[in-house]
Amino acid sequence: MSEVFTKSMARNIYYGGSVFFILLFLALTFDTMGTLPEQDNRAAITPQVALGKKVWEENNCIGCHTLLGEGAYFAPELGNVYKRFGNSTEAIKAFIKSRPVNGVPGRRSMPQFNLTEEELEAIAQFLKYSSEIDTQDWPPNIQG
Amino acid sequence: MKYASQAVSKLYFMAAIGLFVGQILFGLILGLQYVIGDFLFPAIPFNVARMVHTNLLIVWLLFGFMGAAYYLVPEEAERELYSPKLAVALFWIFLVAGALTILGYLLVPYAGLAKMTGNDLLPTMGREFLEQPTITKIGIVVVALGFLYNVGMTILTGRKTVITMVLLTGLTGLAVLFLFSFYNPVNLVLDKYYWWWVVHLWVEGVWELILGSILAFVLIKVTGVDREVIEKWLYVIIAMTLITGIIGTGHHYFWIGTPGYWQWLGSVFSALEPIPFFMMTVFAFNMVNKRRLNHPNKAAVLWAEGTAVMAFLGAGVWGFMHTLAPVNYYTHGTQITAAHGHMAFYGAYVMIVLTIISYAWPIMRGEKAANKRAQVVEMWSFWLMTVSMVFITLFLTGAGVLQTWLQRYTDTPLPFMEVQAKIAPFYWMREVAGLVFMIGLVLYVYSFFAKGESAGDATPV
Amino acid sequence: MLVVLTFLNVLLGTRGYAGSWVQLLTVLLIWAKGSLIIEFFMHLHTAPAFWRGMVHGWLAVVCAGIAGVAVW
Amino acid sequence: MLSIPSRSQPQLPGDLAVWVLILAELLVFGVFFLAYVAAFHGHVALFRAGQATLSIPAATFNTLALITASALVVQAIVALQAGHTRKAGWWFAGAAVLGLLFLLNKWLELHHHMQAGISLSTSLFYMFYLGLVFFHFMHVLAGVLILAWMSRRCFQPRPPGMNAAWSAGAYWHMVDLVWVVLFPLVYLL
Predict the structure, then answer these.
(1) What's the rounded Cα separation, in Å, for the pair C10 and B121?
(2) Using one digit for the tens of pLDDT, what is the confidence trace for B101-117?
(3) Chains D and B share 3 or more Cβ pairs within 8 Å
(4) CATH superfamily of domain region A39-144
(5) Fold of the CATH domain B244-450
């Protein structure tokens, strides 16, 4: 079986193929950006939600939890925690507040972050906003 | 060693291995925290340990890539490095910045670190893998630019080969895509969408170019196969990588608030992502079989072949397992993801860095290959680490399957923490496998100091 | 030849015939046209068996998939 | 049917690298075709309603354009093999123009749908229709660029080698082959 296999052709395919698929990806991104307003719940983003996201980030919550399935797998999914806690921001706040400083012997426990009342309300609102993003019906059930 | 300036890579390799040890140490802590929940609490909570574990991984791999570039670029370009001084300076800047960041993670509460480093001015912290303070991120950009300048000038003013051009494209892509880590909109969906441009397009895009070119370089050296042959296969393989991998980003856009068509696009293209890895395996073994010389560095050949196989298994097979949207619907964000992540990172990136270190280190010490006993020790460490990683992956997969079943798939789903208690035996076994990995790593470090009779010269087949 | 087959294809498709035999015929036409392209345009009739088999195999699988649904 | 001197030994017409690409592309299209078929099976009424909004005459014209262009490419290769480089250049140019016609026609069709406010997210049918057609559209675009490039090189002092010509041809025929399946599948079935 004889065949021709040249380096220049392989190179052309590498460059051509890359450019082709980068352009395609950009086109799809463009389309996605146009569609997002319908499903990313951006109307619900208030200054409070913005503060909540900042609290979320500055306490590295993603280091234990997942949010919409992404993050660490050490603690429960929080994308739907608002719904799991019976559509209650108060329940979320109460849980965060109640964490013991020195943990629970032998068990995993969330640290006590000593958040202010404003921060607590903000993070709860952020989690409420997250739970209302259209995620194509994910997670499969309320347990996340 | 053909060019004196190649020696700077020694610094980089040393740092890489040192940080690797640190990474595994924190891996063991994490593994223990999975089963003894209050281990080291509240001194080192899980999130801090995990951040250290993953960030050390990224940083030491970057050290490894840079060291590899400083070693192979002068040899390929047939000239001294453009500026060895810059390379040394950047090394210390990067190391000190990295060490300070890690110390910051460990000594200051994360929120305090955010305040200290002015996260208010440009909030970029607190996102998975991108936890570094904004100022560290800026430092990474500066180091990357200086590094690119140094390597780029060497390549562009010297002999240009396919290997160096692909490497340069990969490194440039790495630096450019990292810029998206500074974009952090409040809109969570947008945040996640572009976050993947760093994470996915790194590990399933440009990093694979770096992997491919390092592997090609080592294969040319240890097999003596014609450069033409290796270079055109390199082109075809990385072309396939980008053709499948770029739209393959879609497998992260299933459930984060993005349009439904990504489920189809992501599933199809990422289902094809194993192809380039498969080609790489076939390619590596073919080249070794067609070798025209018997290189005395048997360990380096073993690492190179191991990379091809484990990258295929970890990135290809384990990735494919949960990449189809209907499967991913149930497995998304479970221990299955962790299993895939461990084997893919080890197989593709850890092993390629160890391959180039294995090849280059003896040469930088003035030998063709390490002595026979050192090589035997090194090969033992290869098998210990690789086999224990296979077991870590299998145990995590077991944990993930059970977790998916109990928490997601049944009619009576159990809460997260109850499920975690039920899968604890898998975590224990994973921890044991992790200990074996650590033993392998200690043996690996020891292999640099082992003494024995010389390994001899390359002989024609 | 290909042109004629295309018109036949269109004719079948537009006349609104229902039923799986029309669909099967359509698939048959796809297969015929595809084979012609592979053999003569792509010039695979002088190619090594592996490549010829791969491309023909692709066409066969796709056609079988379409036909499968038509009958099912 | 067409007279191309056959060779004694089995040989791949074109570069191995191109054939690897062709197999990969066929694989992608093939998976999407089968996915389409499966989705069709699940939502027959939706797909039938969607198909009714498509223009069959325009697509028929497009099929003929692509097939003719493929035939012209074959002529170009025959001419090039015989050493008639200028003639080959014209054949390539003709094929490229037909490809352009395809693109123009297709663009009008897509534009029409976009005007009607239809997008990838409108329905499952339109996701497949627009996705497949646009993906193929990009391939034709790439093919036209390649053919135009080949044509230009034919008029230059150093004409392209046979390997390049066969490879360009093989890629174009692949685009044609995919359309020959895509057209009946999406428009007619």
Answers:
(1) 63
(2) 999 999 999 999 999 99
(3) yes
(4) Cytochrome c-like domain (1.10.760.10)
(5) Cytochrome C Oxidase; Chain A (1.20.210)
